[in-house]
Amino acid sequence: MSIPSLSDVTVILVEPQSPGNIGMVCRAMANFGAADLRLVNPCHHLHPEARKFAVGASSLLGSASIFPDLPSAVSDLHMTIATTRRRGRLRGKLLDISAVPALRSELPPAARMGLVFGREDAGLTSEETALCSHAATVNTSAEIGSLNLAQAVLLFLYELARQPLTTSHLREIAEQGEVEPLFEQMESVLTRIAFLNSKRPENVMTPLRHILRRAELNRHEVRLLRGMWSQLAWSIRDWRGRKRGED
Known about the structure:
Elements: E1 9-14, H1 19-31, E2 36-40, H2 48-54, H3 59-63, E3 65-67, H4 70-74, E4 79-83, E5 94-96, H5 100-105, E6 113-117, H6 126-131, E7 134-137, H7 149-161, H8 176-192, H9 202-214, H10 219-235
Parallel strand pairs: 1-2, 1-6, 2-3, 4-6, 4-7, 5-7
């Protein structure tokens, strides 16, 4: 039985530290027909060790896109999956890897999914996880829970490839780069009205991100909300902040 192509899936490695791991990721991608590799502030990805472990997929090393940070790497994607084993209140609901193919099927035609993988020694930060629309994990032994980077990529690609893609979602979804400025507007206004704790704004902003991402906003809805928050920002321009003693 042939394996379905994952040409609509992007693999993003955040600050990979080993050229060999990048090479093995390329080989895993080629195994399942995924060709869009994005590297965020990587080590030397064209190192001979990377080419050695890529085997027949070294062309992916040369075509990889390099980005300075995660927001720019995911800006044109419609859904992103942060891969992590760490749980926490601010990380939202952590899905099992088996739930990822169903998420892909919810995307409209021509939309792209990104799989985001963190550093070999530390994974993704909470801030990086919050930038993604979903988070998923592979249940492993509590004794040695973390996976090798290339092994993790292979498992997620295999899980996607072994389940036929049945796209039934016809509703447009805005790209993440279109939604991110909305979050920035919200944070600016909420900071101005003293609704956020300036030392821990993520305590409010991360749940708000989860709420709006569940809504799967389209471009029109994003423009509507941005216009509303722009008007709010304008309306409080002369406000001096919360008075002392107010609740």
